[in-house]
Amino acid sequence: MNDELYHPVTIGNLTIAGNVFLAPLAGYTDVPFRTLAKEGGADLTFTEMVSVEGLSREGEKTMTLLERSPLELQYGVQLFLYSTDSLPQALDMLAPFSPDLIDINCGCPVPKVTKTGAGSAMMSNPALITKAVRIIKDRTGLPVSVKLRIGWDQQRRNYLTFSQAALDGGADMLTLHARTRSQGYAPSAEWGTLATLKRYTVEGGYAVPIFGSGDLFAPIDAKRMLQETGIDGVMFARGAIGNPTIFSQAKAILQGQEPLPPSHTEIRTQIMHHLDLMIAHYGEEAACKAMRKHAAAYLKGIARSAAIKQALVQALKREEYRVALVDL
Ligand SMILES: Cc1cc2nc3c(=O)[nH]c(=O)nc-3n(C[C@H](O)[C@H](O)[C@H](O)COP(=O)(O)O)c2cc1C
């Protein structure tokens, strides 16, 4: 085990400078968001989950999900699948994007995804993960990670046998979202399972990094998770929404510093910068609409922000954001 809490990570043939990552977040981790996360100190970023079926058919919407931010010198692409039939073709479509790592989603609880057998439903099909990991590695030569949950529900907590199936296929990293599928995103994540998974892989002689996800809401949570579980790294998810500097703050804490949270002025600057990145990517009106949920997250917990949020509900222009935020 590494003595330092903040340290580089080796994932197969890939080395990442640090162990504080941004998790895939469907509907959030687009190019502007990942640009902010990189500026905010994320050591590795992932696309939203991308359908293998959509990719193999070269669906336009699917292809835009794969775009890389100029700041992403390294990035991971997350795929979801229910069969390996279209996988070779999808990987060929993916090749021009040159991802550094491919992650397989085995955690999504959304019925639209699980009813096909993808996302967390894959946990009921360990033979499929072994096969999928093997095919991706053979065809691309890239490192492959698997993001899983504890299991489908409390009766089927098979994260260890499922992890073994991924390792049998040659998985180079595992990320455990420490909840079952039936728990969704609450109650509290069971961090004890992260320690158990780490112990399991070490005792099995596997040198793959184990990452943890679940209830990383504040910068200090990264330190708590690493100290309490002995795992190798963390993936911030909801904690990064409306707080893209959470990565550098967490890293400072892991290195023994006491960073200050962003001031209101810094938050205002951050929101406008985020909006500008969105405008460059989507155009003004679409960006102003899509930015509303982000703005609400930036303003969460700030006293007297209700009026600002109210003003932004209708905002369609950058200028309206600028004026609404003057009072922050
Ligand atoms: C809106 C939303 C979208 C998500 N999309 C994905 C996804 O595309 N792929 C994935 O593996 N996990 C996804 N997740 C799960 C997160 O990556 C993370 O594992 C989970 O939110 C637990 O971490 P947290 O409690 O710190 O938020 C999503 C979660 C949320 C809330």
Index terms:
single chain, 328 residues, alpha/beta, TIM Barrel, Non-ribosomal Peptide Synthetase Peptidyl Carrier Protein, Chain A, 2 domains, eight-stranded parallel β-sheet, two-stranded antiparallel ribbon, 43% helix, 15% strand, binds flavin mononucleotide
Account of the protein in words:
- The protein is an alpha/beta fold.
- The protein folds into two domains: 9-254, Aldolase class I (TIM Barrel, Alpha-Beta Barrel), CATH 3.20.20; 264-325, Non-ribosomal Peptide Synthetase Peptidyl Carrier Protein, Chain A.
- The chain is built from 14 helices and ten strands.
- It has helices at residues 31-39, 52-56, 60-65, 87-94, 111-114, 126-140, 159-169, 192-203, 219-229, 246-254, 264-282, 284-299, 306-312, 318-325; strands at residues 9-11, 14-16, 20-22, 46-51, 76-80, 101-106, 144-151, 173-180, 210-213, 233-236.
- The chain has an eight-stranded parallel sheet with strand order 3-10-9-8-7-6-5-4. Strands 1-2 form a two-stranded antiparallel sheet.
- Helix 9 (219-229) links the parallel strand 9 (210-213) and strand 10.
- It is globular and about 55 Å long.
- Bound molecules: flavin mononucleotide (FMN).
- Flavin mononucleotide binds next to strand 4.
CATH topology of the largest domain: TIM Barrel
Sheet with the most strands: spatial strand order = 3-10-9-8-7-6-5-4
Can you tell me the overall shape?
globular
Task: List each distinct ligand once.
Answer: flavin mononucleotide
CATH homologous superfamily designation of the largest domain: Aldolase class I
